[in-house]
Amino acid sequence: MTVIDILTKLVSFPVLGGESNISIAKWIEAYLTEHGVAYKNVPNEDGTKRSIHCRIGPAVDGGVILSGHMDVVPVKGQTWVTDPFVLTDGGDGKLYGRGSCDMKGFIACCLAALPDMVRAQLSKPIYFAFSYDEEIGCLAAPDLAADINDYYDEKPAYAIIGEPSMMQPVVGQKGMVIYKTTVNGSAGHSSRIRQEVSAIFESARLILWLENKMNQLIEAGHIDDRFTPPHTTIHSGIFERSGIAPNVISDRATFYWDVRVIPKDKSTEIRSEFEAYCRELELENRKRFPAFTIVTVEDHSDVPALDTPEHYAIVSLIKKLSGEDKLDAVSYAAEAGQFAEAGFQAVICGPGDIAQAHRANEFVAKEQLVKGTEFMNTLIKELSV
Ligand SMILES: [Zn+2]
User: Please, where in the chain does CATH 3.30.70.360 lie?
Assistant: First the structure.
């Protein structure tokens, strides 16, 4: 099967983040089996989803993991010209379909190269690592990476995460986390605002604290020019409808906030400073309303940043494989930081442009798939005897 045949098949599985991915996993597993490659599954708790990993080549240290996610984002509310789950050649050098770019294009390049990988006399192994639920918070990669560490006696050295980067090597990625904060105040007539505790007023204080925290970090020189914008961002995107009437003090308010950190900042530190401020507000407000609480939970798991130093061997390898010398950094969350935390030197490099991801009429340029295929060929040569 050609890379386009495989991509056509992969796009036809409308597996969204959060949904069961058994259909697409089964197809990939059958393909691996057909080529004589044994695989290992890493299922979720109830068995409705599973990651896949496998090794091609000898069981020796120093191999390369090629990693991609099998899920895609929804198409609901988007205006598509073609059926999003039918890969369509636009006749303009582009192949349209949900996931064509993010990131089934990369998985198709991996699978299309499999017969050559199997035939090659590899001296170092290549591993595939395909995850689920990436699009709802990179949920599966930590277990997948841990299972690779457990399952194989040998130790893979490198992980290449094929997120769309126009086949440019990416060595930096912001970390991200989303929190949900709920404030429980006391209800009452609006004239009693000095006696009751308004959940809206207290939420407003907290949200302003968050904005100030971001500004303080910038002013303190926490800048990393590789990223756009070059600093940690903190933002509240949802303030849930709160209150029942203009003249009734609101006793409950909920807001969501996301933190996207440059590698030198830690979201956990921002969170604990925020919590300290919450405790202060609680002490203060309990004088008026003893049951006053502020509760914050993670709404999107903490995805670590990636910051691969230039002297790492993966950096010279990825330059060779991609034919590109320039190193990039990206502001989107990906699984690369999680693979790095699991002990693999990690980079991002994959076909397609992130600007096309998650949109209506997502596409991958055929030229990008050609580059992805050349990348796989170079990798095979590089790892062959
Ligand atoms: Zn992706």
Answer: 175-302
Ligand 1 mean position to 216 CA, how many Å? 31
Full-prediction pTM beyond 0.85?
A: yes
Residues by chain with Cβ below 5 Å of ion ligand 1: 102-103, 163
In which residue ranges of the chain is CATH 3.40.630.10 found?
A: 3-173+305-383
Does the domain made of 175-302 have the CATH classification 3.60.21.10? no
Q: Who contacts 8 (Cβ-Cβ below 8 Å, separation ≥6)?
A: 87
CA 250 vs CA 97, 198, 286: distances in Å: 46, 5, 16
Flag whether pLDDT at 300 surpasses 90.
no
Q: Is the pLDDT of residue 332 over 90?
A: no
Ligand 1 centroid from CA 199, angstroms: 37
For domain 3-173+305-383, give the CATH number.
3.40.630.10
CA–centroid distance, 97 to ligand 1, in Å, is: 14
- Please give the pLDDT value at position 111: 98
Helix 366-383 vs helix 3-11: crossing angle, to nearest 10:
120
Q: Given this model, what pLDDT does residue 94 score?
A: 98
Ligand 1 geometric centre to CA of 134 (Å): 7
Using the mean position of ligand 1's atoms as its centre, give its distance from the Cα of residue 103 in Å.
5
